[in-house]
């Protein structure tokens, strides 16, 4: 069974924000699969953002800025 294999900006933001909040990557992958994403694609995308320090740092800074 295949699913979505493209990421909208909203989903990208959702992944980055949730990783920055400390959510487990596998939980995000499971949610994406439940929402219709291809399992391999979801794993690859979440891994990409969880292993990218630039993305994590940007998300963390955005959360700090939003709190101030």
Task: Summarize the structure in words.
The chain is an all-alpha fold and 68 residues long. The chain has one domain. Helices cover 72% and strands 0% of the residues. It contains four helices and no strands. It has helices at residues 9-20, 25-34, 39-50, 53-67. The chain is globular, with a radius of gyration of 12 Å. The N and C termini lie far apart (44 Å).
Terminal CA distance reads 44 Å
Number of domains: 1
User: Poorly predicted ranges (pLDDT <50, ≥5 residues)?
Assistant: 59-68
| SSE pattern | HHHH
How is the main sheet built?
Answer: none
Which word captures the global form? globular
Helix count from the secondary structure assignment: 4
Relevant terms:
68 residues, mainly alpha, 4 helices
Brief synopsis:
This protein has 68 residues and is mainly α. Helix content is 72%, strand content 0%. It has one domain.
Write the topology of this structure.
Blueprint: H1 9-20, H2 25-34, H3 39-50, H4 53-67
Helix pairs in contact: 1-4, 2-3
């Amino acid at each position: 069974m295949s699913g979505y294999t493209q990421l909208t900006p909203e989903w990208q933001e959702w992944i980055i924000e949730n990783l920055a909040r400390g959510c487990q990557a596998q939980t995000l992958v499971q949610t994406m699969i439940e929402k219709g994403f291809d399992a391999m694609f979801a794993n690859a995308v979440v891994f990409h953002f969880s292993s990218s320090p630039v993305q994590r740092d940007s998300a963390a800074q955005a959360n700090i800025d939003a709190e101030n």
